[in-house]
Amino acid sequence: MEPLRICMTLNEADTRTKLIDPVLERVGWKVKGSYVKEEVNPVKSKFQLGEYIGREAGIERGVDRFIDYLLLDEDRSPIAIIESKKTSISVEKGDIQARTYRDDIEKQIKSGNRGAAQQHFNIGSINKLKIPLPPLPPPAEICFHCQAS
């Protein structure tokens, strides 16, 4: 897919609502739906139990961080992280942040002995230079694949 070039300056909230949300919705991921979690704390959430803690639980400075979008499969296991940045920030910063979140999740999942299938997932970073959203099918297709296996 050809990178999307944006010639405007957007803050992170606008990047999400004007760029990311429409793309997710267009490919079948309802942003306010049960398979998309926003602002998930990878430090305090219990991924092996499917318990996701968000900003509503409060913020502990220097400890907490938040995944912008966490895409889930039918059993509520994480399968993709999408990190958003304001358009003036480099893609690499978003990628580094997303990899940190992935490591947080994988440490928990491995220690919880969930199995190899849930230990690997996609990371996407979005800003003015590119929108490499994970090549994921819509949730309905993922649910179908879960039932078939």
Task: Set down the secondary structure blueprint.
Blueprint: H1 12-26, E1 36-40, E2 67-72, E3 78-84, H2 91-111, E4 122-126, H3 139-148
Parallel strand pairs: 3-4
Antiparallel strand pairs: 1-2, 2-3
Describe the protein.
By secondary structure, the protein is an alpha+beta fold. It is built from 3 helices and 4 strands; from the N terminus they run αβββαβα. The chain has a single domain (about 10-149), classed as tt1808, chain A (Alpha-Beta Complex). Helices cover about 30% and strands about 15% of the residues. The protein has a 4-stranded mixed sheet with strand order 1-2-3-4.
List keywords for this structure.
149 residues, alpha+beta, tt1808, chain A, 31% helix, globular
Largest sheet geometry = 4 strands, mixed
Do you know the CATH topology? Answer: tt1808, chain A
Give the fraction of residues assigned to helices.
Answer: 25-40%
- CATH architecture label name: Alpha-Beta Complex
Q: Would you report the number of β strands?
A: 4
Work out the count of structural domains. Answer: 1
Question: What fraction of residues sit in β-strands?
Answer: 15-25%
The succession of helices and strands, N to C, reads HEEEHEH
| Low-confidence sequence ranges | 113-134, 143-149
- The whole-number mean of residue pLDDT values reads 74
Strand order of the largest sheet: 1-2-3-4
Structural class: alpha+beta
